[in-house]
Amino acid sequence: MRAPAGWSHREGTLARELTLSGHGLHTGRRVNVRIVPGTASGPRGIVFRRVRHGRVLAEFEVDHVLRRGQPLCTMLEAGGGVRVRTVEHLLASLLTCEIDRATVELDAEEVPILDGSAQPWLDAIRACGRTELPLAKRFIRVLRTVKIGDGIGTRDERSMSIEPANAYEMNVRNDLKGFGALCWEGALTPTSFAGEIAPSRSYGRVKWAIPAIVAGYLRGMPILRGARLSCTAAIVGNRVIGGMRVPDEFVRHRVLDLVGDMAMAGAPLLGRVNALRPSHEMNYRLIAALLADRDAWEWAEFAG
């Protein structure tokens, strides 16, 4: 059998090391990132490594650590409480650029937000290039439907499901007062992600952001301290300051976050994700429910 249309049938890694710097959306702290190419004999998947002054604090694989969906980001936590926050845009970019093995080294807790989208990551990864590895690419094939939800049947319903399919497909619906109902539906491939999803930015209403920042300071929890117009589609009333970058940008960014959060499973999916008003917490609950049901999925490899 051949790999799904648009995807390679061999694993890959970066052709050379990638370095990039920026500030965290929530902590506001400066962070330097170094992504080191993986090898066929090394760890499978994406490994995160926290460093400080040249010393390794912790090293952990994405699919072997505690994963948490938070209100405004996704976090990984290793033993000893060492964390990496806001991983979703980077993980989505690595997955859809088909970088299956690499080590991500950071000197602070939070992955940089850059311009609020996945585009800078895609550009940086493509500039490095991809090297194919002599290994069959793995996918997670969904065998039966898994569902989660809150407020089912009410006006505030949030629900998600993943069901069997021969490709990685999504139907994501969201709504936002003043902008109406928004939807993105289609097959997720490296090409569709780069052209339709990657440029969409994190977004939020200015009137919500300021109280959240203040509350974060009062609770000692960093929230949106690094938010700027340069990294956010800021909403005032029924408009976006500076305009939208792509049509229906808000729902496309929900897709971006969903792709990154689903990447915590460790491989692309062969399944259809249906999502109504998804959030990081909901995304995490769905992937956790799928992986916990060992009869609901299997590993699939395609040799060519």
TrEMBL record:
<keyword id="KW-0444">Lipid biosynthesis</keyword>
<keyword id="KW-0378">Hydrolase</keyword>
<feature type="binding site">
    <location>
        <position position="253"/>
    </location>
    <ligand>
        <name>Zn(2+)</name>
    </ligand>
</feature>
<dbReference type="InterPro" id="IPR015870">
    <property type="entry name" value="UDP-acyl_N-AcGlcN_deAcase_N"/>
</dbReference>
<keyword id="KW-0441">Lipid A biosynthesis</keyword>
<comment type="function">
    <text>Catalyzes the hydrolysis of UDP-3-O-myristoyl-N-acetylglucosamine to form UDP-3-O-myristoylglucosamine and acetate, the committed step in lipid A biosynthesis.</text>
</comment>
<comment type="similarity">
    <text>Belongs to the LpxC family.</text>
</comment>
<dbReference type="InterPro" id="IPR004463">
    <property type="entry name" value="UDP-acyl_GlcNac_deAcase"/>
</dbReference>
<keyword id="KW-0443">Lipid metabolism</keyword>
<protein>
    <recommendedName>
        <fullName>UDP-3-O-acyl-N-acetylglucosamine deacetylase</fullName>
        <ecNumber>3.5.1.108</ecNumber>
    </recommendedName>
</protein>
<keyword id="KW-0862">Zinc</keyword>
<dbReference type="Pfam" id="PF03331">
    <property type="entry name" value="LpxC"/>
</dbReference>
<keyword id="KW-0479">Metal-binding</keyword>
<feature type="binding site">
    <location>
        <position position="257"/>
    </location>
    <ligand>
        <name>Zn(2+)</name>
    </ligand>
</feature>
<dbReference type="InterPro" id="IPR020568">
    <property type="entry name" value="Ribosomal_Su5_D2-typ_SF"/>
</dbReference>
<feature type="active site" description="Proton donor">
    <location>
        <position position="280"/>
    </location>
</feature>
<dbReference type="InterPro" id="IPR011334">
    <property type="entry name" value="UDP-acyl_GlcNac_deAcase_C"/>
</dbReference>
<feature type="binding site">
    <location>
        <position position="89"/>
    </location>
    <ligand>
        <name>Zn(2+)</name>
    </ligand>
</feature>
<comment type="pathway">
    <text>Glycolipid biosynthesis; lipid IV(A) biosynthesis; lipid IV(A) from (3R)-3-hydroxytetradecanoyl-[acyl-carrier-protein] and UDP-N-acetyl-alpha-D-glucosamine: step 2/6.</text>
</comment>
